[in-house]
Amino acid sequence: MSNELFLAGLEKRAWLRVFEDGVWDIEIGLLFVSLGATIATDWGALAPIAAAVLTPACLGLKLWITAPRIGHVRFAKRRVRRVEGVTWLLAGLALLTSVLVVVAGRAAGSATPFWLDWVRHHFAAVLGAMWGGTLALAGGILRVPRFCAYGLALLVALVVSDLTGTYSIGSALMIGGSPMALVGAVLLVLFVRRHPRRPSEEDADAGQ
Amino acid sequence: MQGNREPQRVEIDRVIHEPARLLLVAHLYVVESADYVFLMQNTDFTWGNLSSHLSKLEEAGYVEIVKDFVGRKPHTMVKLTPAGRQAFDTYRRQMKGLLADLPE
User: Which residue among A57, A162, A164, B73 is the one 20 to 30 A from A200 at the CA level?
Assistant: First the structure.
């Protein structure tokens, strides 16, 4: 059994290294911050602009900073299926959020069911449960524990916003997203220090 | 006098048994494919060292080396062939059996 554990350890280490650079933490964190700022400032274009800028920027970080240090790897189907599962989860969450926003936004009337009224009055908490729960679940599926912590932080920020009314949903998202982005930035700095750039194939060919 | 049982000869695969190549094959076994930078990062081999060992593995039919380009930059991915995976499985079984037979 011990060499199976050794091999499983090799694979797990390679997998976790994909998340070691903190790039996805930065992107997810800044997306939440920008969404919060969009709601708080009422500038509707902010979140889409942020998404349009952040996604290629983070892919660029992966290509120019991460890959030259730890290389490219294609994982076995078992791991790939987990990533696909998380993708479907996020797609489902986006759909559910859209439906909820539309349904809860409809004018209240005598025919409005009790649960819909409750959702409308506790919208921040419901968002917190959905988004925080999804982030935590994604962390569990991908086996990246800090994503579970991020999910919990987001849930707490939104629930506190809902229960106390101390700050708005926009502020709650910024409060929930900021630690993710900060942790990601710290991880990126540590990653760059820990993993020197490896010679590329071009460098190796030139040296021959 | 002990029993007349002759010790069984175990034919260890010397291509895989070499420590550097064993490390390479173990890393390739747990993934679908990987590039040179990944292998260098996990084994601390130099580029020349890595190339040399991968060539031997390729000669034995255990790895497949696929040269491609990412933009204009050359990019090489390495994967274990089915024969390579089978050879590694056989090697693991042999070593397990060998070590299990040793007296305490």
Answer: A57
What would the pLDDT profile of B9-48 be if each residue is shown by its tens digit? Answer: 668 899 999 999 999 999 999 999 999 999 999 898 998 9
> Is B88 part of the contact surface with chain A (CB cutoff 8 Å)?
no
Q: Please give, rounded to a whole number of angstroms, the shortest distance from the CA of A181 to a CA of chain B.
A: 26
- The two structure tokens encoding residue A207: 């040296």
> Structure tokens of A126?
């419901």
Contacts B42 to A, Cβ<8 Å: 10, 14
Identify whether the C-beta of residue B50 lies closer than 8 Å to the C-beta of residue B43: yes
Whether B41 and A199 lie within 8 Å, measured CB to CB = no
CB contact under 8 A, B31 and A73: yes
Q: If you ran DSSP here, which 8-state letter would residue A168 be given?
A: -
The answer to whether residue B77 neighbours chain A at the CB level (below 8 Å) is yes
Nearest to B45 by CA among B21, B73, B78: B21
pTM value is: 0.83
| Distance in Å, alpha carbon of B87 to nearest chain A alpha carbon | 16
Inter-chain residue contact B41 with A7, CB threshold 8 Å: no
pLDDT tens digits, residue range B63-75? 999 988 776 777 8
Helix residue ranges per DSSP H, A45-144: 46-61, 67-70, 77-105, 114-121, 123-127, 133-142
ipTM above 0.90, yes or no: no
Secondary structure (H, E, C), B23-86: HHHHHHHCCCEEEHHHHHHHHCCCHHHHHHHHHHHHHCCCEEEEEEEECCEEEEEEEECHHHHH
